[in-house]
Prior knowledge:
- It contains 8 helices and 8 strands.
- By secondary structure, the protein is α+β, with helices and mostly antiparallel strands.
- It has a 6-stranded antiparallel sheet. Strands 1-2 form a two-stranded antiparallel sheet.
- Helix 1 packs across helix 2, helix 4 crosses helix 5 and helix 4 crosses helix 6.
- The longest helix has 23 residues.
Amino acid sequence: MTGPKSSRRVRTAPPTPPSPVPTDLTAPVEDYLKAIYEIELSHDAAATNDIAQRLQIAPASVSGMVRRLADQGLLAYERYRGVRLTDTGRRAALRTIRRHRVIEAYLVKALGYPWDQVHAEAERLEHSASDELVDRMAAAIGEPMTDPHGAPIPTREGVIDETKHSSLADLSTGRRAKVVRVGDENDELLRYLGSPGIRPGAAVTLLDRAPFEGPLTVRVGQAQYQIGHALAAKILIEGASG
């Protein structure tokens, strides 16, 4: 006769908490991490030349910095491809991006800045503003989900909407769509788009498309405008309909 089987409790190790994000990163390091994050959105990894082009510096300078960031555990090499952010590096990049985009939103909503004058200000302030100050800014303007140009704002926990959108250049003739985001690096471009009201939330209809990547004729409200193909590619849209 055998006795009752003894039960064995299987113990599982608790999940390893994420490594803390360094709080003493320099402005150049934050710029590198932010640039690599943005490159990764459209590429599997960031090559040296891509980083150099985005930051407008020499590739030789990039190689040295990349090695230092890898030694700090912020980057990981992918053979023959380039580098990718580690989990710690990604969270550090998103923290800087959150600062930048909250500051832009605050300057527009609370201080009345035009949308074409906030990018450079945010570039300077993103490295000096504390996380607490940025959180207070966000709370003061209602916790916006996007910046004035439609770019998603990461949460305090580093969560961000990375939905990929098509561009106005991809819209079929006769279709209507809503603008969700435009590039913010060029102030003149923003002024140009702001004049006809091509901003996040605006409805646009593609009326005609010139051949060989020629200009696109679009309707915004009751007016018609012509937009170059390259510029249309910088205007992201959603909800295309006939």
